[in-house]
Amino acid sequence: MKDRLERIVILTGAGISAESGVATFRGPGGLWEGHRVEDVATPEAFRHDPALVQRFYDLRRAALGTVAPNPAHMALARLDAEWPGELLLVTQNVDDLHERAGSRRLLHMHGALKSAWCLACDGRFPHAGPLAGWPPCPGCGARGRLRPDIVWFGEMPYHMPRIHDALLMADLFVSIGTSGNVYPAAGFVDIARESGARTLELNLDPSMTSDRFAESRLGPAGSLVPEFVEDLLRRR
Ligand code: APR
Hints:
Elements: E1 8-12, H1 15-18, H2 31-34, H3 37-40, H4 43-48, H5 50-63, H6 71-82, E2 87-91, H7 97-101, E3 106-108, E4 111-118, E5 124-126, E6 146-150, H8 160-169, E7 172-176, H9 188-194, E8 198-203, E9 215-218, H10 221-235
Parallel strand pairs: 1-2, 1-7, 2-3, 7-8, 8-9
Antiparallel strand pairs: 4-5, 4-6
C-alpha cells in the first residue's frame, strides 16, 4: 500500500443526499420501487414514450428547489477547499447538492438534472425548467430535441478516462452512500485497491462491494462524512 497521502478520489451515490430528502434508488421508498427502470431510464423508454420520461425528470428537477445540501455535502466542500493535494469528487448523483455546497473539483459521471442535451446539435446547456413542453435548443434553436442530460442504462458514463487515471494515481479511495449495484462505479474500488490505494467505505448499510474495501464504516453520511473530513484534515 502507498505510504503517501496526497491524491484522493471520492465516489458518492444517492445515500449522501438521502438526509437532504432526495430519494435513493433502491430499497423501501426508493425511486426504482415506484418506477420500472426500463420505463424511464433507458434510451428505448425515451423513444417509446418521451413525454413520460420528460415528466419523470421534470418532477425530479423541480424537487431540487425543495432540498438543500446536508453536513456531508458541506464537509466534502470543505475538504475540496482545504486539501492541498489532488482531489477528485466523482458523483453518480444527478442532483446539484455538491456544487451548491461549494465543491469545485467535481465530476457528474451520470449526468445532471440541471443540464439539457440537444440531440440536434449535440450541445449541452444549463437548464433549470421543465423539458416536457419541448423548449427550443438555446444553441441551435431546434424544437423537440432537448433531452435530460442523464446517463441512462445502456449509455456510457461521462468522464471515464479522467476518472480511471485518477483512480490509478489515488492514494486513498473513499466511497460514500452507494449500494455498489451499478458498474462501472462499483468497480472503482478494485482499480484503486490494485493500484495500492487505501480504500474506505462510508455507508448506512453494508453494500454489494463492502468486502472489497480495506475498511467500512456504517452510519449516516451526515455524521460519518464530517468526522472523516475532520480527521483527514487534522492528520494532513
Ligand atoms: N447515509 C449513508 N448512506 C445511506 C444513507 C445515509 N443517510 N441512506 C441510504 N444510504 C445508502 C443505502 O444503504 C444504499 O447502500 O445509500 C445507498 C443508496 O443506494 P442506491 O439507491 O442503489 O443508489 P446508488 O448506489 O447511488 O445508485 C447507483 O443506480 O439507478 C442508478 O443511475 C442511478 O446513479 C444511480 C446508480
